[in-house]
Amino acid sequence: MTVSTVKTDHASAAVPPVARPSAPAHIIRDDAEAIAIAHALAAEFVKGASRRDRERIWPVAELDAFSQSGLWSINVPKEFGGPELSYATLVKVIEIISAADSSIGQVAQNHLGIIAAIRTVSDVEQQKLLFTEALKGTRFGNAFSEFGSKRAADFETRFTDAGDHVVVNGRKFYSSGALLAHLVPIVALDDEGRAWYAIADRGAPGLTVIDDWSSFGQRTTLSGTVIIDNVKVPKTYLVPGYKGYDKPTADGAIFQIIQVAVDTGIAQAAIDETVHFVRTRSRAWIDSGFDNAWDDPYTIQAVGDLTLRLHAAQALLEKAGHAIDKAVAEPTAETVAHAQIVTAEAKILSTEIAIAATNKLFELAGTRSTLAEHNLDRHWRNARTHTLHDPVRWKYSILGKYFLNGENPPLHAWS
């Protein structure tokens, strides 16, 4: 049986870079404007979401609108001209966008995480340089993970010093956002084994991005292969990422919390689809004694349960956002650990509700909801794929060690 019908017929071909924005991106004024813009964009993105998934259409225009809206710079500090909004607002934005199209929500994740890392580890001159790019509407992609290593944090990609620049060599996969990015941060090790972000121009000679992402879910994150063959990166674009994890900082929690928001967005979309289908298409069960599917007491109970669990996940997500705000402002072992713990709690609930809601959709909506014309299985496929980013079973371990033995979570991008 063939599960995935993703088209990667030309996967061996390099994809040319996209043009940089011709005009500066909008600068968000406050949290309310950010939420309003997210809702407006989501209303447009949802219109073509099913078709983009079905036919694996690249969201080129959608990403341009998203990044030019100002939502990709909302965590740029005020001192550099950015909005510096709360992380509670940032994750609500990602949730809203992800409810419309979770692939588009995920593509922004690494960009926002890199902006946070630059704030943590870069000197003032580098911050000014790179934050200016973000405020222009420049999109940062990602070339972090590698396919064949034993563990996610094991990297073979390295760089060598060449005077005013470094030369990077390696191969990456799971590179969400790289294909349609303007700059590609590459995680590469120096001679001491320390991890840096070598931020290469998307069109740099030797940087090849291949569209070979064949997963059954999150199809248009375009998370394929990046080949790095003697790619030159100016030292001004070499960010000491390792400094974000050699002492307590919020960097790991920030990368994590955005993943949580993608999953709550998927859950919201699935519940909304369930309600709509039950109200407009589903038939009452033969033994129920009701004329309408929405009067079925078991369906009513199930929708109430799913909604309650989603609201619990969303509440923890907001709480985690505020905890991260505090950890960014006052990075101590205590504030960072608290942000990590609340984010881990939210990650557990968001994973569980995303999978439950996307699965329950079909049980409550009935057999006709499985017809290909509705493409409702995309929500389950997206939830199942995205929640594999890091195992929730290890989140329980983090919580148990913290609450039982007072052990703080490890410092890395998965915690």
From TrEMBL:
Signal peptide: none annotated. SUPFAM superfamilies: Acyl-CoA dehydrogenase C-terminal domain-like, Acyl-CoA dehydrogenase NM domain-like. One of its GO terms (biological process) is L-leucine catabolic process. It holds the Pfam family Acyl-CoA_dh_N. Residues 258-390 form the Acyl-CoA dehydrogenase C-terminal domain. NCBIfam families: sulfur_SfnB (TIGR04022). This is Sulfur acquisition oxidoreductase, SfnB family. It comes from Mesorhizobium australicum (strain HAMBI 3006 / LMG 24608 / WSM2073).
